[in-house]
Predict the 3D structure of the following.
Amino acid sequence: MSDYSCYVLWGSAGHSKVLADIIRLGGGRILALFDNDQDAVTCLPGVPVFHGEMGLREWLSGHELLGVPLKAAVGIGGARGCDRQEITQRLLAAGFSLPPLIHPAATVADTARLAKGCQILANAVVAADVSIGVAGIVNNSANVDHECRLGNGVHIAPGAVLCGCVTLADNAMIGAGAVVLPRLHIGRAAIVGAGSVVTRNVPDSTIVVGNPARILRSKR
């Protein structure tokens, strides 16, 4: 088995199922799941689930392939960018690598820059000179146009569109089917509601909805 084949996932719900499909399409194998929820059960038949930091240590201490490079991915979607980053750092500290996961049906420009733990899902487009920070997600059929700058922990939901030169600060989320017009800035931990059309900059920690998008409320 090649080192590419050896993966673990943190999370035992729907997003981990999506990541498992990408890994398997690349010839990989999921060895274990981890979840902070002590009641979590496996979402992948035949793959064991371990709980929390103690479960991670237990698995590592008894793993028969110790010494073989292991890879990991964080199966947590939604507006939980802080959680994705924290778990990414935990897995790196435990000795895993977290290379970007790219679905074979996605399109990623040669000049795009993807940080550790990025996930580019089916039919997504990441265009020329885009950069995406640690633990970013570009979900199914989303389009990130040229020269966009996406911070750590961002999530572009299915079918959303970022026009050229958009900037997203850390942990921002763009909802399903939303559109952000060119050269705008979406603030840290801001959320753009599904189907919204953003025509002006969005402040930190706010939720905007509608067409044109307007502030619904502040998260502060």
